[in-house]
Design goal:
single chain, alpha/beta, Alkaline Phosphatase, subunit A, eight-stranded mixed sheet, 10 helices, 17% strand, globular
Amino acid sequence: MTHRARYACGSVDHALSRRKFLGTTGGTALGAAALKTGGVVATLSQGASANAIAKQDYRVVVFNMHGGLSQLESWDPKPSTRTGGPFRAIPTSVPGIHICELLPKTAKQMHHLCLLRGVNTSEDDHGKGAYMMLTGRRQTPAAEYPQVGSVAAKMLHDEQTGLPGHIIVTPGGGGGRGNEAAYLGPKFNSIHLGGDKPPQNSNKPDAIAAEAEARRHELRRKINEQYLTQRRSAVTDAYTHSYEQALKLMERREVFDVSKESQSAQDMYGNSELGRQCLVARRLLENGVSFVQVTHSNYDTHNDNFNFHIEQVGEFDIAFATFIEDLAQRGMLEKTLVVVLSEFGRTPNINLYYGRDHWSKAWSVVMAGAKVARGAAYGQTNAEGTEVTDGQVDHGDIFHTILRAVGVDSSQSLMVDGRELPIADPAAEPIWKVLV
């Protein structure tokens, strides 16, 4: 299909094509873009320390199905109903649980998965919905909250790995820093990778001798130390951290190179961009990265919803099912939480363009691994999928659940400039019935 650009709703969130959605923030892993957030220092005020949690070696992977994956063409099909669409529901490896026929390989991994079919976030705007799902809070001009990747990096990451704790793998990413950490400080912002490629400018030019490079950084460190004795802040620390992290990253550049994998492993993940992204994500997790987000977009199917999902969900099915099976066989799923989310779902109603519009009242999120129940389906929607009838949860509940599933007490607070700020919305709570 060549007309994907017309699927989207035309919001600013979809001004770019689906293969270039997040684009590149420019620069390298050194980037001064790390300094977009304020100069604050956030520390735990109660509960387990970050170091104690890190020793448990938990990790988080988020598959961000940007644009709004249709729950009816994935996790909560409604065949033979007025607006259910043309696809069948198929059995899975768990008796009694059915998902859409576009996910045949994933269906065989259902015994590892937990479906949350009762999600109601009541927000149909792309930007606001994405913010809610990644921060667990509604957007407000009064405060900026850190995204889940930044929280995971702070609470779980061991800096001794020499790799960043927060990495986003997306087509078009070029090694620049994101701006997701809010009051946690810029060192917990993401680094964006361009698909399965190492960060740009992360190898030393041949023209610079190793001895000269070492002397250059020795001089930089001495100047930094002199400056920091008088003007140290979270921002200056972030500069220092970015340089030192980049040096360590350059030493471990091979981690990002999927060609180091066997041909059989590469073939297993499939010859697709998403497959290669999943393979590099597994390599990052194996090497100590605490949070990886893999972006798959653009699911904003206002037009031609069904043909689009045949192609796009088919690509996801191969890569995702392989990723889950691979983690399970390697013994990594016990300590890795995998989450599949969007900013909302799609309408049960089919519009005159054979598309589905934005729908946040009744949709689905999927989790797997760590301390989440296996082979479960929690929550239920009515016969046509228009509302939640049992097990309703929202973005705040899901954020709490993500943290609890990797050993973080989500009732903790952080001290920020003398103020105590809860790391998750105190008005929400974990979905206790899906935690083990």
